[in-house]
Structure formats: C-alpha cells, structure tokens
Amino acid sequence: MKQYQSDEIKELSAALCKAQSTMPHALKETENTFFKVNGKNSTYADLAACQDAAKPHLLENGLEVSQVVDFDNGIDFLVTMLTHTSGQWRRSYYPIRVKDANNPQQFGAGVTYARRFSYCAIIGLTAIGEDDDGNMASGNTVKKPEPTKSADDMYFDNQIIAITNAETLEALREVKKLEATRWSASPKKELIYGTYNDKLKSFGVGV
Prior knowledge:
Oligomer: single chain
Distance between the termini: 40 Å
Strand content: 15-25%
Strand order of the largest sheet: 4-5-6
Structural class: alpha+beta
C-alpha cells in the first residue's frame, strides 16, 4: 500500500498555506500548435512557468518539490514529493500512459505533462491566460480571459485559498497569526474573517 504523507503534516500545511497566500497564478504563454481557438494556437502554462510562479514562495517557507519516475506492476509512475524543512512530507503518484513507451520522444512528452500536472496539483497552483486548453480539448467553448485583478483582489483571493485549504485547526490559526494585520487593513476584511470563522466552525470550534 502506497503512503501519501508523513504521520504528521501540521507544519507542512501551515507553510503551504502561507506560500499559497502570496503565490501568483502561472501564466499561459506557451503555444499549443495542436489546438486552435478562433484560428490561433491555444496557450498553456508550461512546467517552467509553473515553477517560476511557485518556487520562490515555496522556498521562502521551507518547502521543496522533487519528482522522479518509478516503475511498479508494469506501469511507469511519476512520483512527486512535497517536503518541508521539518521533515514532514506529501507524495503523489501519476501513471505515465503513452501509446509507445519504447519511443523516447513519446515517453519524454508524457513525463513532461505528468510533471506539470502533478507539480501544480500538489501545491495548489492554478494558471491564467489567453485560452483554456482543457476546455478546448473537450469541445467546450473557451471563455475570454478575466480582466487583470488589482493587488488587493489578488491578496483577497490568495487569503481565501489559504484559509479554505487549511487541513488542520493549527494550520488555520497559523494563517491568521501571520496575516491578521493585513486582514484588518484589507477592504474585504469582513469577507476574509467570515471565511475564517466558517472554517473554524468546520473544525468544531465555536466563534
């Protein structure tokens, strides 16, 4: 049976919440020549763009992501590991499925896709940009990009993500401890504190 996390993840969760509170979205700037929207190539955030957006914020909070390829029961897997300086960790497994695993080019492309997908998933990173390649690939209408958000709006979004992603009461309280001063000064402080109080209740704590 695969193990997906260390016995304790309190410190890791608190550090990830803090990193997510300042982490920007990855930008979709790489063209995908296989899919087009309105006659133009679609775009996506490649692995380098995802790492550029996230890595400084992860390292600042004692977090690091490593990835290796493993083989088990006839299936190639990408193993992604999120580790914290405390020694706590999380791990994910992503099957690498290609038509011809003996074709180095196909297998390399499969590994690259798996690395990008798993990297974003384990740290909660999202991408914004011109097109939504996932929607387009499934035949759905591609939406126009949202207007650029202000710094206050970006901060609000990141705080809501950090609060809702807190997996323990200790991690939630750590987010507040680190950001309480900025919460009080935010134009959307009522919404932030409302979300925080709702999250407290989900842990069985009265407000």
